[in-house]
Write a structure and sequence with these properties.
Elements (H helix, E strand, L loop, with lengths): L1 H19 L9 E3 L3 E7 L5 E5 L6 E11 L16 E12 L12 E2 L7 E2 L2 E10 L1 H10 L5 E14 L5 E5 L4 E6 L2
Parallel strand pairs: 3-11
Antiparallel strand pairs: 1-2, 2-4, 4-8, 5-6, 5-7, 5-9, 9-10, 9-11
């Protein structure tokens, strides 16, 4: 009886290991298209942006979208699809408070800034993304007590479309950028 129990446990464990090893080998933040794959990453050196109420200027952060052409396998046939550029259809910035005691941002929590460079060519492309709008700064200046600091996590996603094939994918930069706001 113990033997049957141990064998059943062994077979179940092996089945779970096999099932969990299935799936894509691509990392999160990768979009796959017909002729290229694309990744997005924050390129700044600091993991946070420090803002004060003194300036009402919007704050940008640099993100790199890297488009890499697929290698053509040596099967004896050639592909008729040319390597395609990508079009940035939309950028989405979502802010969520680090601490539940920080003010909720309501409709200011999600913004759709325009791309500084709407076309992504094969290779690395730097795109400046407006992370904090002037309206958000004004809202926080009114909500946060003088001398206090609040922090929000910014998640940035890019809706990309392959120009030649019209295939679309959303690429979200891995991790998040912390936005610290001090009402000085």
């Amino acid at each position: 009886m113990l033997y049957r129990y141990l064998m059943g446990l062994f077979c179940t464990t092996c089945a779970l290991v096999m099932l969990t090893s299935c799936g894509e080998s691509k990392a999160t933040g990768t979009g796959e298209f017909a002729t290229v794959q694309a990744t997005a990453n924050y390129t700044g050196t600091a993991s946070s942006l420090d803002l004060t109420a003194a300036s009402t200027v919007p704050v940008d952060a640099a993100y790199t979208i890297t488009s890499t052409a697929y290698t053509v396998p040596n099967t004896g046939s050639t592909s008729t699809i040319a390597v395609s550029n990508l079009l940035v259809n939309r950028i989405t910035v979502s802010l969520s408070p680090v601490n539940t005691s920080f003010p909720a941002l309501g409709s200011l929590a999600v913004s759709f800034p325009t791309a500084s460079q709407p076309l992504v060519i094969v290779g690395a492309n730097v795109i400046n993304v407006e992370i904090v709008t002037a309206a958000l700064k004004a809202f926080l200046a009114a909500q946060v007590p003088a001398g206090a600091t609040v922090s929000y996590r910014a998640t940035v996603s890019f809706d990309l479309q392959e120009v030649n094939t019209q295939r679309s994918a959303t690429v979200t930069a891995p991790g998040f950028l912390v936005v610290n706001f001090t009402n000085a």
